[in-house]
Amino acid sequence: MIHDKSGRATRVALVTADIFPDLYEDDHPLRDALLARGAAVDAVRWDDPAADWDGYDLVVLRSPWDYTSRRDEFVAWARTVSRLANPADIVEWNTDKHYLGELAAAGLPITPTTFVEPGEAWTPPEAGEWVIKPTISVGSRDTGRYLLPEDLTAARALAERLSAAGRTTMVQPYLAAVDTAGETAILCLPDATGALTFSHAIRKGPLLNGRGERLGEYSEDITTRTPSARERDLAERVLGLVPGGADRLLYARIDLVPGQDGAPLLLELELAEPTLFLRTADGAAARLADAILRRIRVSSRAG
Ligand SMILES: Nc1ncnc2c1ncn2[C@@H]1O[C@H](COP(=O)(O)OP(=O)(O)O)[C@@H](O)[C@H]1O
Ligand SMILES: [Mg+2]
């Protein structure tokens, strides 16, 4: 066990949801690497009323994916946790995809997106393949792919359902390169000095395989990937625009898909609770465990 000056073991909470009492499997290598380094590790659901968050040296968000229907409650909870990674202001900013509009305004190439606010009238595009999805979602929930004009009724129905629930709708062209090149997820973790650095990358196959809303269980086709120089460069630029600076982050995932001309577009920046695909890269779980313990050492010296 690692102990502090008073002899107390270093304690890390990995935050999950009630459906993953033993964590999501992607985080098992992280838990094991922390245990191997002598830390005490608890899997705790974010909405556990009995959790003692102040009793942890660091509270690390991992799989709290049931927050999407009560995101205000989730953000309010995050604000009460003093030692949270990533920090609560980042969680608030990043769990609503309106941040994509900010990044576009700052000049970054994002997936072309129209935001339709609740109650606002939406004029559907006349033709082409389109994706409709909410600004607050994980795991492609409430997300559909529509060929217009054939699927107009179904497309309108999803947009109207989101609007009626007070949710913002995003309308994007279906990026067909996701079917061939796939989606590239670039994972960044702190290096030995604590600076956020490229760690590894994966290719994810397409998730919207049929027309209409994606429903039910799905499996992700994940393989390792060496990102191109353009993809690495865009990931750097995205991180350069993170409010408060990227070096506050314990982890970041940048999801990119090629646009029509082949240049990468940002599909999503995941700073709240991304799957990190730790098994796909040698040493990734060890690097993250070391970064967690380093952060705890640095903040206990500072505090
Ligand atoms: N514009 C798009 N073109 C092609 N595929 C898309 C598009 N938007 C979403 N998808 C598919 O849906 C998945 C989920 O969408 P995403 O924007 O990543 O939201 P989240 O992962 O938060 O649910 C993506 O991984 C991708 O497979
Ligand atoms: Mg995604």
From TrEMBL:
Q: PROSITE patterns recorded for this chain?
A: ATP_GRASP
Supply one GO molecular-function term: metal ion binding
Query: Is Transmembrane helix found in the keyword set?
Result: no
Swiss-Prot/TrEMBL keywords: ATP-binding, Nucleotide-binding
Q: Which InterPro entries match?
A: ATP-grasp, DcsG_Biosynth_Enzyme
Question: Per the database record, which ranges form the ATP-grasp domain?
Answer: 100-297
Stated name of the protein: ATP-grasp domain-containing protein
Species in which this protein is naturally found: Couchioplanes caeruleus subsp. caeruleus
